[in-house]
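Troubleshooting entry. Yesterday's outputs looked truncated, so today I'm pasting the complete records for two proteins to confirm everything comes through intact. If either block looks cut off, that's the bug. Protein one:
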Amino acid sequence: HIPSRLFYNLINLEYLDLSSQRKPLKQIDDYAFDRLINNIPIKHIDLSYNNINKIESKAFCSKNSQRQFVN
């Protein structure tokens, strides 16, 4: 699963490929993709070929902002 703020300090991260994991992802917690620099969201996140059965409602939100990072 992807816990809250896992990528928080990776300020240069633009593209994230989590597809086809050896152990498929099943859950994404609130604020999982929250960033230290909130005005630079991750541009592309690939979650294909996983077995995700739960995505928390604030998974793509920031704790420091009400802005969601999903288009």
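Protein two, checking that the full record survives here as well:
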Amino acid sequence: KRRMNDDDLEFQKIHDIFSPIKDDKEKTLQAGIKFTAEQCQGLLKGGAPGLHFYTLNKTSPVNAILEAVRK
């Protein structure tokens, strides 16, 4: 039997966060912002020199992410 690796654990975390709210667009958006902000904070703390976002013409979520990261 294969042991779970970090990718498996991350996938499970994503599944656990989003599965219960998959039918609620607003909760999914807010959870996505929170999850992404936490990922960004981890990257920056880990030494990433910066972040780059593709907004796909939806800047509001990215603005919320950046606001959370700056806290």
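Both blocks look complete. Sanity check on protein two: The mean pLDDT is 93.
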